[in-house]
Amino acid sequence: MASDKDYNPAKLTASIISDLNSVFSPHLGQVPIGKALFAENKKLVIVQCGRKFGKTDVLIYCLYRWALLNPQTFSYYITPYKDQIRDILWANGRLPNFLPDNLAKKYIKSINNTDFRIVFNNGSFIKADGSDNYEKLRGYSATGLVCLDELKDIKDEFYAAFEPNLAITDAPLLGVGTPAYDDDNLFTKLGERAAATETGAFFNFPSHMNPYISADYLKRKEEEYRERGEYDVFQVEFLAKRVKIGSKYIFPMLKKSMVRSHDELIDHIRANRKDYDFFTGYDPGSAKCFAVGMFAIHRFDKHIIAIDEIYATKLGQNSVRQIVPVALNKFKEINPNNDDWMDCYDYAAAWFASEIAFEYEDYPHPLIPCQKDLKNKEGKLSLIKDILLNNLITFSDRVEKGYWEMDNYKVDENGKLLKENDHWIDLFRYVLNLANYSTVEGARPIDFTQKYKTGTIARDIYREQQESGYGDIDNFIYGD
């Protein structure tokens, strides 16, 4: 037996790490996690990752490494529910049999299959438990690493009960999982805290960060989800993005990155006016809401700019006499050439066209009644989804109500569209009908950072970009 004078901490550390790496070697996407914990001494590490990233493997590796390098420490692997432990970690041997027999004999003192506990020769242990047992967890002494798996499914009550245990010894916490779908979630809260503090680290790792996953497999999965109309699910599960998900929300692919400064968009439109057609959609209503939306649609790229809106909901403020003068002023700001505009309205609102003719004999734009296409509403909503998925729309920051309607548009518990808060969405459908809009081959997002010296985008520049190969705008690895 070696004497105390032969004890060499550095040599022991190197030996432990070498033994562990002979069992599991983190891939390049997992390396930053270990660096944050073991090299940078981060106390709160949150990882938002896609499926097949290897989250369970890296959690187990980190727990073993922490327990073996830090004697007399108590570490925990927490799942959302205790019932999950046996199936996910124990029966398959992933946690208790992480080390092969030769290394298990070297480092492990005992394994308790009832208590889900691994005790090491150096006095440390790893215990697996469920967050649903949070009242019992109040009494745990977390002096080592605490790992939270599938963090989006772990409740706030658990963290409130367990977090004081970390404070006693300033123990680190590592939380991982696919993204949460809302802001009122422990995952989201801890992720924002980790990103904002010096002692924290937040990582966002899509599935393709794992080099062992076939790119062809991921591309096939992307196509499968698209065909099912569930690209939002693909974004969450494989791209590790926070988007609204599920059948409840109609436009989960709507993103804040689609909103830009109104002044920036107006400057762009003025510089490239001849490349755009201009449309106004009216959804007249005298009782609840009178909504107006102004749009510019690029003639070549089919990119839509939602430029401005009027959204009057108060009685006495939503008459034609009050709405139209405001709209005319907005038209002049956007594009002073009134003859370039085409306007449409709900064909059922014949009173609106009559009142326009009566009040404004010199109304400057063609005013065209437009079908709501009630029988094909799903088809038009599907077109809007395609527009969003392909980043073919940009919202001015003035279009607050229009963005809000789309962000909250959903179905009821029976899967039927809710007939409320859809005034802007209706007028957008009128405009798409009037413009005979369809997403055609070659449609692409506008690069608003590109500045043009001429008043328009020259057609030869457009053709040159098309011929050079714009690339796949839906590319899941490089694109958004």
The radius of gyration computed from the alpha-carbon positions, rounded to a whole number of angstroms, is 29 Å
Largest sheet: 8 strands, mixed
Give the domain tally.
2
- Side by side, the strands of the main sheet go 3-4-5-2-6-7-1-8
Shape: elongated
Mean pLDDT: 84
Task: Provide a brief overview of the structure.
The protein has 17 helices and 15 strands. It is an alpha/beta fold and 480 residues long.
Task: Outline the structure in words.
With 480 residues, the chain is of the alpha/beta class. It has two domains: 7-209, Rossmann fold (3-Layer(aba) Sandwich); 256-467, Nucleotidyltransferase, domain 5 (2-Layer Sandwich), CATH 3.30.420. It is built from 17 helices and 15 strands. The protein has helices at 9-23, 31-39, 55-69, 84-90, 101-107, 134-137, 156-169, 186-196, 215-227, 231-237, 262-271, 320-334, 350-359, 377-389, 400-408, 423-434, 459-467, and strands at residues 44-49, 74-79, 108-112, 117-120, 125-130, 146-148, 173-177, 200-205, 259-260, 276-283, 290-298, 304-312, 341-346, 367-370, 393-396. The strands form two sheets. Strands 3-4-5-2-6-7-1-8 form an eight-stranded mixed beta sheet. Helix 1 (9-23) packs antiparallel against helix 3 (55-69). The protein starts with 8 loop residues before the first helix and ends in a 13-residue tail after the last helix. Residues 452-480 have low confidence and may be disordered.
